[in-house]
Amino acid sequence: MTRIFSTALAAALLASTLATAHAADAPQREPYGIALEGFAYPYPVHLLPVVNDGEQLSMAYMDVAPAQPNGRAVVLLHGRNFPSSYWADVIKMLNDAGYRVVVPDQIGFGKSSKPMGELHFDNLARNTIALLDHLKIDKADIVAHSLGGMLGVRIARAYPDRVAHLVLTAPIGLEDYRLYVPPIPTETIIETEDKLTADRYRKQLQTNYAIKLPPEAITPFIDARFNIKGSPDYPRWLRAFVSSGQMIYREPVAHEIAEITEPTLFIMGADDHNAPGRPNAPEALRAKMGQNAELAKALAAKMPNARAEIIPDTGHLVFLEAPEKYRELVLDFLCR
Q: What pLDDT digit, counting tens, does each position of 189-230 carry?
């Protein structure tokens, strides 16, 4: 018995030693910078200087020209938890149809500057229009996702003459979250976000967004969120990220949506019940939040030129989960 135990112990020690040696030999990936330095985008990234509340900042963007231009431009507006690189397949789809595609990272996100000040939808809208001015684009179609949908609404309301069509892809902000969620101090949210692990974040995305994608398709979003933790500027990124959540809560657009007169298409995943702040709402109110498909249909019915399309068996990442149906809906709508 002693001999068997000694043999097993020796084998375990050898396996542990080999594992340690293998880990030591494995190349250690350097952390991304908080402007996602080291994280690849599908097209060249340019920088536009902007000033927000007196702060000098840089807005990153991709400007992708089609092989056979149709003379029109589309601006893609990303969500809160995603770098604009996730639009890669939609960029190609639009390019193939002849559209010039402009893809900014809003200030506070992706490869753009992380400001010291607070984020505001009005500033992000002005930045986006400044980008169009810089690129000499008088009027564009806007295709927006998630938080980008709230920004798209603000742009369409503030600059209606600059918007030809508005596609709201699984937008958040179709309801006023202040009616359900009590205000939470910024420092409390920072502390909570800082404790979040990569595994818990993956589960959070899968649960909140009802994602119908294989795990490996979600990994780049996990990397973009957690491989920046090794950056010395991570606290600055974290404060900007939390500021974006406070912006969603403090600056609702739900009450403006029905006033949009430009042609508008809602594309909703039937299983998408994402509702920012739901865990902080009283339990009795949580079930009332995030009825997004129904909210979109109700809002479209109040608008002069809008409709809502609901894609079954689809969650929050509609354009990745149902790409063929998404392509059909978007291209048909933009041609009208």
A: 999 999 999 999 999 999 999 999 999 999 999 999 999 999
**Does the pLDDT at position 61 exceed 50?**
yes
Counting Cβ atoms within 10 Å, is residue 12 exposed (0-12), middle (13-18) or buried (19+)?
exposed
Contacts of 109 (CB under 8 A, 6+ apart): 78, 80, 83, 84, 244
Rounded (10°) angle between helices 234-250 and 147-158:
60
Distance, in Å, from the CA atom of 49 to the CA atom of 59, rounded to the nearest integer, reads: 6
- Global pTM? 0.91
Other C-beta atoms within 10 Å of 162: how many?
A: 20
Question: Which long-range contacts (C-beta less than 8 Å, at least 24 apart) are formed by 296-302?
Answer: 296/168, 296/171, 296/174, 296/266, 296/268, 297/266, 299/174, 299/257, 299/258, 299/266, 300/264, 300/266, 302/258
Evaluate whether 30 touches 232 at the Cβ level (below 8 Å).
Answer: no
**Whole-angstrom Cα distance, residue 99 to residue 64?**
9
